[in-house]
Q: What sequence folds into this?
């Protein structure tokens, strides 16, 4: 291709531009992003940036040196594939090859939009709006005990806010972890001094209060909603790009979309995993780092090895370092290494004796070794693996 245009200047978009240059692509590269800020990393937004320990988290990438044209503060509103053109607020932009990297947008709590004091946590602007909330130690209600809810609660407690967390499921992280594994995490909320209400549903949000469906009213100087994110792909409706029921761009094994010359990477794209026998939509940082390398290779070379990673992510919550690698289902066998009451522990998931996923709390070595074993499809001895003093790689 002559001119490559990347839509979305988050982790996946930036990594695409970097990977194109690394792989020797010499043509023009344009990176278009809706946000006005220098491209930045999101994980610090719910950690150091939120607590004011870091001003921002801009990527350490020299776009001039890379000869990448940045167009920031420009939202792309449509794709006309037959003309090889994008529509933007500032007029049309032509491309020879296109990479979609528009990420995800937070799911909005119905009825809460526009209510004063209600926040989401996805962007640098969101984090900047939340910093004064923490500084003034408001009563804060967090809706959703997922990854964002846990990290925000951690920061809000560190800042001295009174925090009530409202979670519809009966345990935290219900979308990812079974009750047996998440139960000890409920205790982390309590230990931090936050009030976790499980099995609780929001009926409505008013300025200053959250009302639950069971009649309870919780005072709320601020409300932070963390109930999930969906691919930011609405602008692609009618473009001819195939989208899945989850809103993701359904890319193939080299991250090519249903249209020629169009690829998709990061939080906006799903891909078929031969490793797991299903299509995966991964909303984690590592996927936004690795996927672009495959897409760039496919773009430059015309072919690429299939993208089939062992998904990996981490979270920092309640003073703990939580890491997960792999992919498990409810029918896999759970195996504990250490007790959930220990300061550090690991859980393994086995499928017919083969390690398919590992969750490590404060045990980064287990994670590193487990990730390699999962990648290799290695069998492990459940008796040895259950002994936390036996290195996982020798189990
Ligand atoms: P994004 O980072 O969402 O970037 C997409 C960009 O595209 C955005 O800047 C958006 O404005 C822009 N865009 C969207 N639509 C358009 C359009 N139509 N035109 C132009 N531009 C557009 N993952 C971990 O593994 N560990 C963590 O600890 C962790 N912490 C996180 C904390 C927070 C607060 C958040 C929000 C996410 C966290 N993640 C973490 C997830 C990780 O940050 C994401 O997986 C990653 O940012 C995905 O990168 P992306 O480039 O695909 O999407």
A:
């Amino acid at each position: 291709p002559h001119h490559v245009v990347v839509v979305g200047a988050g982790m996946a978009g930036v990594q695409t531009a970097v990977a194109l240059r690394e792989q020797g692509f010499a043509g023009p590269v344009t990176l278009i992003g809706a946000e006005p800020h220098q491209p930045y990393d999101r994980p610090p937004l719910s950690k150091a940036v939120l607590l004011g320990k870091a001003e921002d988290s801009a990527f350490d990438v020299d776009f001039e040196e890379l000869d990448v044209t940045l167009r920031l503060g420009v939202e792309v509103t449509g794709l006309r594939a037959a003309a090889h053109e994008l529509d933007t607020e500032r007029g049309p932009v032509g491309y020879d090859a296109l990479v979609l990297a528009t990420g995800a947008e937070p799911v909005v709590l119905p009825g809460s939009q526009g209510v004063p004091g209600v926040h989401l946590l996805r962007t640098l602007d969101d984090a900047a709006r939340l910093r004064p909330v923490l500084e003034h130690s408001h009563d804060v209600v967090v809706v959703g005990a997922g990854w964002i809810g846990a990290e925000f609660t951690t920061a809000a407690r560190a800042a001295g806010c009174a925090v009530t967390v409202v979670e519809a499921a009966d345990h935290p992280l219900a979308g990812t972890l079974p009750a047996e594994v998440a139960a000890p995490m409920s205790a982390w909320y309590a230990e931090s001094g936050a009030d976790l209400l499980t099995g609780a549903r929001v009926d409505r949000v008013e300025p200053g209060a959250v009302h639950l469906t069971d009649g309870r009213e919780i005072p709320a100087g601020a409300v932070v909603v963390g109930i999930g994110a969906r691919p930011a792909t609405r602008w692609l409706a009618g473009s001819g790009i195939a989208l899945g029921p989850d809103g993701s761009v359904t890319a193939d094994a080299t991250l090519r979309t249903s249209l020629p010359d169009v690829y998709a990477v990061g939080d906006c794209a799903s891909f078929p995993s031969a490793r797991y026998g299903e299509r995966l939509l991964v909303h984690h940082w590592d996927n936004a780092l690795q996927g672009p390398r495959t897409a760039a290779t496919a773009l430059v070379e015309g072919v690429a090895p299939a993208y089939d990673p062992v998904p990996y992510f981490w979270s920092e919550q309640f003073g703990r370092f939580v890491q997960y690698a792999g992919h498990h289902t409810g029918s896999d066998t759970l195996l504990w290494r250490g007790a959930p009451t220990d300061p550090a522990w690991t859980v393994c998931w086995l499928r017919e004796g083969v390690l398919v996923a590992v969750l490590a709390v404060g045990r980064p070595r287990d994670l590193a070794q487990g990730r390699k074993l999962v990648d290799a499809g290695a069998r492990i001895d459940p008796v040895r693996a259950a002994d936390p003093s036996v290195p996982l790689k020798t189990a």
